[in-house]
Amino acid sequence: MGGDVEQLKQRWPLLDYLQQQNWAARPAGYDSEFVGLCPLHQETRPSFYVNARKNLFYCHGCGQGGDLIRFVELSRHLSFRQSLAYLAQQSAPAVDSATVLNEVAAFYQEQLDRYPEALRYLERRGVHDPALIKKLRIGYAPGGCLRRHLTAQGYCFDLLRQVGLVNSQGRDTFYGRVVFPCSHGGRTVNLYGRSLGDAFAHRFLPRPKGGLYAWEQVRHCPEVILVEGLFDYAVLWQAGFHHLTCSLGTHLNACQFRQLCDNQRTVYLTFDVDANGSGQQAAQQLAYRLRARGIATRRVLLPPGHDPNHFFVQGGDARQFQSLLEGAQP
Ligand SMILES: [Zn+2]
Q1: Cβ(271)–Cβ(250) under 8 Å?
Q2: What's this model's pTM, rounded to 2 decimal places?
Protein backbone atom coordinates (compact mmCIF):
# COMPACT_ATOMS: atom_id res chain seq x y z
CA MET A 1 0.00 0.00 0.00
CA GLY A 2 2.88 2.42 0.81
CA GLY A 3 4.00 2.33 -2.81
CA ASP A 4 0.50 3.08 -4.02
CA VAL A 5 0.29 6.07 -1.70
CA GLU A 6 3.58 7.49 -2.98
CA GLN A 7 2.49 6.91 -6.56
CA LEU A 8 -0.81 8.62 -5.97
CA LYS A 9 0.89 11.64 -4.40
CA GLN A 10 3.34 11.90 -7.26
CA ARG A 11 0.62 11.62 -9.83
CA TRP A 12 -1.38 14.26 -8.08
CA PRO A 13 0.64 17.11 -6.55
CA LEU A 14 -1.00 18.76 -3.54
CA LEU A 15 -0.91 22.20 -5.16
CA ASP A 16 -2.75 20.90 -8.26
CA TYR A 17 -5.37 19.30 -6.08
CA LEU A 18 -5.91 22.50 -4.08
CA GLN A 19 -6.16 24.57 -7.22
CA GLN A 20 -8.77 22.20 -8.61
CA GLN A 21 -10.70 22.87 -5.41
CA ASN A 22 -10.46 26.60 -6.28
CA TRP A 23 -7.84 27.42 -3.67
CA ALA A 24 -6.48 30.87 -4.57
CA ALA A 25 -2.82 31.33 -3.67
CA ARG A 26 0.12 33.65 -4.25
CA PRO A 27 3.85 32.91 -4.02
CA ALA A 28 4.97 33.27 -0.42
CA GLY A 29 8.37 34.67 -1.30
CA TYR A 30 10.32 31.52 -0.60
CA ASP A 31 11.23 28.93 -3.18
CA SER A 32 8.16 26.90 -4.28
CA GLU A 33 6.07 28.13 -1.35
CA PHE A 34 2.52 29.44 -1.71
CA VAL A 35 0.13 31.06 0.70
CA GLY A 36 -3.64 31.59 0.73
CA LEU A 37 -6.74 31.46 2.90
CA CYS A 38 -7.07 28.22 4.83
CA PRO A 39 -9.69 25.86 3.36
CA LEU A 40 -9.93 24.08 6.73
CA HIS A 41 -10.95 26.97 8.96
CA GLN A 42 -12.59 30.38 8.65
CA GLU A 43 -10.10 33.21 8.32
CA THR A 44 -9.70 36.61 6.67
CA ARG A 45 -5.89 36.79 6.50
CA PRO A 46 -3.99 34.03 4.66
CA SER A 47 -2.12 31.65 6.92
CA PHE A 48 -2.28 28.43 4.89
CA TYR A 49 1.12 27.57 3.33
CA VAL A 50 1.89 24.96 0.71
CA ASN A 51 5.37 23.81 -0.12
CA ALA A 52 5.04 22.56 -3.70
CA ARG A 53 8.47 20.89 -3.72
CA LYS A 54 7.90 18.93 -0.51
CA ASN A 55 4.21 18.44 -1.37
CA LEU A 56 3.12 19.50 2.14
CA PHE A 57 0.83 22.08 3.69
CA TYR A 58 0.75 23.86 7.03
CA CYS A 59 -1.72 26.35 8.47
CA HIS A 60 -0.49 28.78 11.11
CA GLY A 61 -4.11 29.57 12.00
CA CYS A 62 -5.52 26.15 12.88
CA GLY A 63 -2.23 24.29 13.22
CA GLN A 64 -3.17 21.55 10.73
CA GLY A 65 -0.57 20.23 8.35
CA GLY A 66 0.47 17.26 6.25
CA ASP A 67 0.30 15.82 2.77
CA LEU A 68 -2.44 15.45 0.15
CA ILE A 69 -4.09 12.53 1.89
CA ARG A 70 -4.11 14.32 5.23
CA PHE A 71 -5.72 17.29 3.50
CA VAL A 72 -8.45 15.09 2.01
CA GLU A 73 -9.05 13.46 5.40
CA LEU A 74 -9.51 16.86 7.05
CA SER A 75 -11.45 18.64 4.34
CA ARG A 76 -13.84 15.78 3.49
CA HIS A 77 -14.07 14.18 6.95
CA LEU A 78 -12.90 10.82 5.67
CA SER A 79 -10.66 8.16 7.20
CA PHE A 80 -7.20 7.54 5.77
CA ARG A 81 -8.46 4.55 3.80
CA GLN A 82 -11.54 6.41 2.52
CA SER A 83 -9.34 9.32 1.46
CA LEU A 84 -7.18 7.00 -0.60
CA ALA A 85 -10.28 5.49 -2.20
CA TYR A 86 -11.64 8.96 -2.86
CA LEU A 87 -8.44 10.10 -4.56
CA ALA A 88 -8.16 6.90 -6.58
CA GLN A 89 -11.72 7.48 -7.73
CA GLN A 90 -11.07 11.12 -8.57
CA SER A 91 -8.02 10.34 -10.65
CA ALA A 92 -9.61 7.36 -12.38
CA PRO A 93 -11.42 7.91 -15.67
CA ALA A 94 -14.81 9.50 -15.06
CA VAL A 95 -17.28 6.97 -13.70
CA ASP A 96 -20.63 7.20 -15.38
CA SER A 97 -23.94 7.30 -13.57
CA ALA A 98 -24.95 3.81 -14.76
CA THR A 99 -21.97 2.28 -12.93
CA VAL A 100 -22.79 3.90 -9.62
CA LEU A 101 -26.52 3.19 -10.00
CA ASN A 102 -25.70 -0.48 -10.58
CA GLU A 103 -23.59 -0.49 -7.46
CA VAL A 104 -26.46 1.11 -5.53
CA ALA A 105 -29.00 -1.39 -6.90
CA ALA A 106 -26.76 -4.28 -5.80
CA PHE A 107 -26.32 -2.74 -2.34
CA TYR A 108 -30.07 -2.25 -1.88
CA GLN A 109 -30.70 -5.80 -3.08
CA GLU A 110 -28.42 -7.08 -0.34
CA GLN A 111 -30.34 -5.08 2.26
CA LEU A 112 -33.75 -6.48 1.36
CA ASP A 113 -33.45 -9.76 3.28
CA ARG A 114 -32.18 -7.96 6.37
CA TYR A 115 -35.36 -5.91 6.80
CA PRO A 116 -38.46 -8.04 7.48
CA GLU A 117 -40.66 -4.94 7.24
CA ALA A 118 -39.61 -4.56 3.59
CA LEU A 119 -40.40 -8.18 2.77
CA ARG A 120 -43.73 -7.86 4.59
CA TYR A 121 -44.51 -4.78 2.51
CA LEU A 122 -43.79 -6.66 -0.73
CA GLU A 123 -45.97 -9.52 0.47
CA ARG A 124 -48.79 -7.07 1.22
CA ARG A 125 -48.49 -5.69 -2.31
CA GLY A 126 -48.76 -9.21 -3.66
CA VAL A 127 -45.10 -9.63 -4.61
CA HIS A 128 -43.75 -12.87 -3.14
CA ASP A 129 -41.96 -14.87 -5.83
CA PRO A 130 -38.22 -14.84 -4.90
CA ALA A 131 -37.26 -15.48 -8.54
CA LEU A 132 -39.20 -12.39 -9.62
CA ILE A 133 -37.75 -10.25 -6.83
CA LYS A 134 -34.31 -11.29 -8.03
CA LYS A 135 -35.12 -10.82 -11.70
CA LEU A 136 -36.42 -7.28 -11.15
CA ARG A 137 -33.50 -6.58 -8.76
CA ILE A 138 -35.93 -5.30 -6.13
CA GLY A 139 -34.09 -3.97 -3.09
CA TYR A 140 -34.57 -1.98 0.08
CA ALA A 141 -33.11 1.39 1.03
CA PRO A 142 -33.04 1.60 4.82
CA GLY A 143 -31.53 5.10 4.62
CA GLY A 144 -28.51 6.55 6.35
CA CYS A 145 -25.98 4.02 5.06
CA LEU A 146 -25.63 4.48 1.30
CA ARG A 147 -23.22 7.38 1.34
CA ARG A 148 -20.83 5.61 3.69
CA HIS A 149 -20.95 2.46 1.57
CA LEU A 150 -20.27 4.28 -1.70
CA THR A 151 -17.55 6.50 -0.28
CA ALA A 152 -15.78 3.40 1.00
CA GLN A 153 -16.06 1.99 -2.54
CA GLY A 154 -14.24 5.08 -3.77
CA TYR A 155 -17.12 7.05 -5.23
CA CYS A 156 -16.80 10.76 -4.65
CA PHE A 157 -19.46 12.84 -2.97
CA ASP A 158 -19.90 15.12 -5.98
CA LEU A 159 -20.85 12.17 -8.18
CA LEU A 160 -23.41 10.97 -5.64
CA ARG A 161 -24.90 14.46 -5.51
CA GLN A 162 -24.91 14.70 -9.27
CA VAL A 163 -26.70 11.37 -9.67
CA GLY A 164 -29.21 12.44 -7.01
CA LEU A 165 -28.39 9.70 -4.49
CA VAL A 166 -27.68 12.13 -1.66
CA ASN A 167 -28.93 15.65 -0.94
CA SER A 168 -26.75 18.70 -0.37
CA GLN A 169 -26.43 17.84 3.34
CA GLY A 170 -25.12 14.43 2.34
CA ARG A 171 -28.22 12.50 3.44
CA ASP A 172 -29.44 9.52 1.43
CA THR A 173 -32.30 10.40 -0.90
CA PHE A 174 -34.10 7.12 -0.18
CA TYR A 175 -35.14 6.29 3.39
CA GLY A 176 -37.30 3.27 4.17
CA ARG A 177 -38.18 2.57 0.55
CA VAL A 178 -38.53 -0.53 -1.57
CA VAL A 179 -36.42 0.16 -4.64
CA PHE A 180 -36.80 -0.95 -8.26
CA PRO A 181 -33.90 -0.17 -10.63
CA CYS A 182 -34.96 1.07 -14.09
CA SER A 183 -32.80 0.29 -17.10
CA HIS A 184 -32.63 1.65 -20.58
CA GLY A 185 -30.60 0.01 -23.31
CA GLY A 186 -28.97 -2.29 -20.75
CA ARG A 187 -27.89 0.58 -18.46
CA THR A 188 -29.39 1.40 -15.09
CA VAL A 189 -30.72 4.93 -15.52
CA ASN A 190 -32.86 5.56 -12.46
CA LEU A 191 -34.23 4.08 -9.26
CA TYR A 192 -37.87 4.04 -8.22
CA GLY A 193 -38.38 4.15 -4.47
CA ARG A 194 -41.68 3.17 -2.88
CA SER A 195 -42.13 4.27 0.70
CA LEU A 196 -43.28 1.56 3.12
CA GLY A 197 -45.59 4.03 4.85
CA ASP A 198 -48.36 5.99 3.19
CA ALA A 199 -47.07 9.33 4.48
CA PHE A 200 -44.46 9.74 1.73
CA ALA A 201 -45.11 9.61 -1.95
CA HIS A 202 -43.31 7.26 -4.26
CA ARG A 203 -40.48 8.89 -6.13
CA PHE A 204 -37.64 8.58 -8.60
CA LEU A 205 -34.18 10.03 -8.33
CA PRO A 206 -34.19 13.54 -9.81
CA ARG A 207 -33.05 12.40 -13.26
CA PRO A 208 -34.65 11.09 -16.45
CA LYS A 209 -36.68 7.89 -16.00
CA GLY A 210 -35.55 6.49 -19.35
CA GLY A 211 -37.77 4.47 -21.67
CA LEU A 212 -40.45 1.85 -21.04
CA TYR A 213 -39.64 -0.61 -18.27
CA ALA A 214 -37.88 -3.79 -19.49
CA TRP A 215 -38.74 -2.83 -23.07
CA GLU A 216 -35.94 -4.92 -24.60
CA GLN A 217 -37.76 -8.07 -23.51
CA VAL A 218 -41.04 -7.29 -25.26
CA ARG A 219 -40.21 -5.04 -28.18
CA HIS A 220 -40.75 -7.90 -30.66
CA CYS A 221 -44.06 -9.07 -29.18
CA PRO A 222 -47.09 -8.45 -31.43
CA GLU A 223 -49.18 -7.73 -28.30
CA VAL A 224 -47.98 -5.76 -25.31
CA ILE A 225 -49.73 -4.99 -22.02
CA LEU A 226 -48.91 -1.49 -20.75
CA VAL A 227 -49.36 -0.73 -17.04
CA GLU A 228 -48.57 2.47 -15.18
CA GLY A 229 -46.92 1.19 -12.00
CA LEU A 230 -44.13 -1.22 -11.11
CA PHE A 231 -46.26 -3.10 -8.58
CA ASP A 232 -48.80 -3.67 -11.37
CA TYR A 233 -45.95 -4.97 -13.49
CA ALA A 234 -44.68 -7.28 -10.75
CA VAL A 235 -48.02 -8.97 -9.96
CA LEU A 236 -48.92 -9.44 -13.62
CA TRP A 237 -45.53 -10.99 -14.31
CA GLN A 238 -46.02 -13.28 -11.34
CA ALA A 239 -49.41 -14.31 -12.73
CA GLY A 240 -47.73 -15.39 -15.96
CA PHE A 241 -48.29 -12.32 -18.18
CA HIS A 242 -44.84 -11.66 -19.58
CA HIS A 243 -45.63 -9.59 -22.69
CA LEU A 244 -45.68 -6.65 -20.36
CA THR A 245 -44.15 -3.21 -19.93
CA CYS A 246 -44.63 -0.22 -17.65
CA SER A 247 -44.65 3.51 -18.33
CA LEU A 248 -43.78 4.48 -14.71
CA GLY A 249 -46.68 6.92 -14.50
CA THR A 250 -49.63 7.82 -16.71
CA HIS A 251 -47.68 10.33 -18.73
CA LEU A 252 -45.39 8.79 -21.35
CA ASN A 253 -42.25 10.70 -22.24
CA ALA A 254 -41.28 11.14 -25.89
CA CYS A 255 -38.89 8.20 -25.80
CA GLN A 256 -41.53 5.84 -24.39
CA PHE A 257 -44.09 6.94 -26.95
CA ARG A 258 -41.61 6.36 -29.79
CA GLN A 259 -40.87 2.89 -28.46
CA LEU A 260 -44.55 1.91 -28.55
CA CYS A 261 -44.78 3.17 -32.14
CA ASP A 262 -41.62 1.58 -33.52
CA ASN A 263 -43.41 -1.48 -34.91
CA GLN A 264 -46.84 -2.86 -35.73
CA ARG A 265 -48.38 -4.10 -32.50
CA THR A 266 -51.47 -4.09 -30.31
CA VAL A 267 -51.12 -2.26 -26.99
CA TYR A 268 -53.39 -3.27 -24.10
CA LEU A 269 -53.67 -0.14 -21.98
CA THR A 270 -54.17 -1.28 -18.41
CA PHE A 271 -54.20 1.94 -16.42
CA ASP A 272 -55.83 2.55 -13.04
CA VAL A 273 -59.58 2.84 -12.85
CA ASP A 274 -59.52 5.44 -10.09
CA ALA A 275 -62.28 7.59 -8.65
CA ASN A 276 -61.12 10.84 -10.26
CA GLY A 277 -60.85 9.19 -13.65
CA SER A 278 -57.28 10.38 -14.29
CA GLY A 279 -55.97 6.92 -15.22
CA GLN A 280 -58.74 6.29 -17.74
CA GLN A 281 -58.49 9.79 -19.15
CA ALA A 282 -54.76 9.26 -19.70
CA ALA A 283 -55.45 5.88 -21.30
CA GLN A 284 -58.00 7.41 -23.64
CA GLN A 285 -55.65 10.18 -24.76
CA LEU A 286 -52.82 7.75 -25.24
CA ALA A 287 -55.04 5.40 -27.24
CA TYR A 288 -55.97 8.29 -29.51
CA ARG A 289 -52.33 9.30 -30.08
CA LEU A 290 -51.26 5.71 -30.72
CA ARG A 291 -54.05 5.07 -33.19
CA ALA A 292 -53.03 8.22 -35.06
CA ARG A 293 -49.66 6.51 -35.53
CA GLY A 294 -51.24 3.28 -36.77
CA ILE A 295 -50.85 1.33 -33.52
CA ALA A 296 -53.83 -0.80 -32.47
CA THR A 297 -54.98 -0.26 -28.90
CA ARG A 298 -57.34 -1.99 -26.46
CA ARG A 299 -58.45 -0.50 -23.17
CA VAL A 300 -58.57 -3.06 -20.41
CA LEU A 301 -61.37 -2.19 -18.00
CA LEU A 302 -60.65 -3.25 -14.46
CA PRO A 303 -63.40 -3.08 -11.84
CA PRO A 304 -63.93 0.49 -10.50
CA GLY A 305 -61.31 1.59 -7.98
CA HIS A 306 -58.80 -1.01 -9.15
CA ASP A 307 -55.38 -1.07 -10.66
CA PRO A 308 -53.83 -4.38 -11.74
CA ASN A 309 -52.05 -4.60 -8.39
CA HIS A 310 -55.28 -4.34 -6.35
CA PHE A 311 -56.96 -6.70 -8.73
CA PHE A 312 -54.55 -9.50 -7.88
CA VAL A 313 -54.00 -8.55 -4.21
CA GLN A 314 -57.78 -8.71 -3.69
CA GLY A 315 -58.02 -12.21 -5.04
CA GLY A 316 -58.20 -11.78 -8.81
CA ASP A 317 -56.46 -14.55 -10.73
CA ALA A 318 -54.78 -15.06 -14.09
CA ARG A 319 -57.88 -16.56 -15.68
CA GLN A 320 -60.03 -13.57 -14.68
CA PHE A 321 -57.43 -11.14 -15.94
CA GLN A 322 -57.19 -13.05 -19.19
CA SER A 323 -60.92 -12.60 -19.74
CA LEU A 324 -60.53 -8.86 -19.09
CA LEU A 325 -57.87 -8.82 -21.83
CA GLU A 326 -60.16 -10.68 -24.19
CA GLY A 327 -63.01 -8.28 -23.45
CA ALA A 328 -60.84 -5.19 -23.90
CA GLN A 329 -62.44 -2.59 -26.18
CA PRO A 330 -60.63 -0.91 -29.07
ZN1 LIG B 1 -6.29 26.62 9.00
Answers
A1: yes
A2: 0.71
